[in-house]
Amino acid sequence: MRFAFLAAENLSIFDPVSPSGESIRSLAYFVLAVTGVIFLLVEGILLYSVYRFRHGPPKGANEPPQVYGSKPIEIAWTSAPGLVVFVLILVITRTLWEVKVDTAKAPKDSRPLRVTVIGHQWWWEYVYESYDGKKLDFITANELHVPASNFSKADRRRPVFLTLQSADVCHSFWVPRLAGKMDLIPGRTNTLGFETSQTGLYLGQCAEFCGAQHAKMLLRVYVDTPEVFERWLKNQEKPAVDDPKVVKGKKKFFSQSCISCHRVRFQGSTATGTYAPDLTHLMSRETLASGMILNTRDNLRAWIDDPQKVKPGCLMPAFGLSPSELDWIVDYLWTLK
Ligand code: CUA
């Protein structure tokens, strides 16, 4: 089984590629500096005292002077930490203000992408709502594609606005290099916005414990050039490929209960489930099982054969398919580019 999460992509908040990521990095440096100075001060005095008084008091020495109820000292040790905390509150508030994106209001002349993200145990559903004012109508899973922005011209800016919801328990959307962390809470809608000019693959992780496979609820955000993104968009909007060469596998797939959970979108399709990932363009994705394993033929076959072996506790059961039935179904899915 070839695992995907071994990819050495970095997830560091110290290497941001978006303005809000940069604000968070500055805040992190500032907090580290302040707490670092306090740490050095306290540890320094401690080490000095340990060294200076290492022999203990000389024999017969009296106790040092005992100080009770000293106002100046009490004022000092109350106000100094209070002041430090107050400064941190101010700086954190400013950062919160900087990273907060009003997803209802796109910058003038920009071309926003709007996607609804729905957290499931344990995968991500992406409902593409609109791009550049044009309505979209397709759903994909686990791999979010967005266009890169060009900050230098208003009409080339492409901010990404996410609406965050949950289908079951609390999850949290966190792609450290792109934006801060935002929870997906059942019965509540949160929003998150980001914008970056740097293309590439950005990894993330569900950041709220959500059950047995929480650690394998990985995020993959592909920031494409606008051209590549628009090509990807065109393909996703198309109905599923119907290849007559794999009719056996297609029949088998549609005769199984796969179709009550999964969707394969085309005119008259009976696979209309929304409980599990949309498979219309399954082969356009690089990974399976929410970024856990690479989307290779062998991995796909092993996954369908017994998902519990790959991702114990996931909601897809093994269906006891024979090896040839498995091959047919994989043949069919393999055509869903
Ligand atoms: Cu979803 Cu942790």
What can you tell me about this protein's structure?
The protein has helices spanning 19-52, 71-99, 226-237, 247-255, 258-261, 297-305, 307-310, 323-333; strands at 113-120, 123-131, 134-141, 143-147, 160-166, 171-173, 182-184, 190-194, 200-205, 218-224, 287-288, 293-294. With 337 residues, it is α+β, with helices and mostly antiparallel strands. Strands 3-2-1-5-8 form a five-stranded mixed sheet, with no helix packed on it. A three-stranded mixed sheet has the order 4-10-9. It has a two-stranded antiparallel ribbon with strand order 6-7. Helix 1 (19-52) runs antiparallel to helix 2 (71-99) and helix 4 (247-255) packs across helix 8. It is elongated and about 100 Å long. The model has no long low-confidence stretch (mean pLDDT 91). The structure holds dinuclear copper ion. Dinuclear copper ion is lined by residues 119, 122, 171, 206, 208-210, 214, 217.
Secondary-structure blueprint:
Layout: H1 19-52, H2 71-99, E1 113-120, E2 123-131, E3 134-141, E4 143-147, E5 160-166, E6 171-173, E7 182-184, E8 190-194, E9 200-205, E10 218-224, H3 226-237, H4 247-255, H5 258-261, E11 287-288, E12 293-294, H6 297-305, H7 307-310, H8 323-333
Helix pairs in contact: 1-2, 4-8
Bound molecules: dinuclear copper ion.
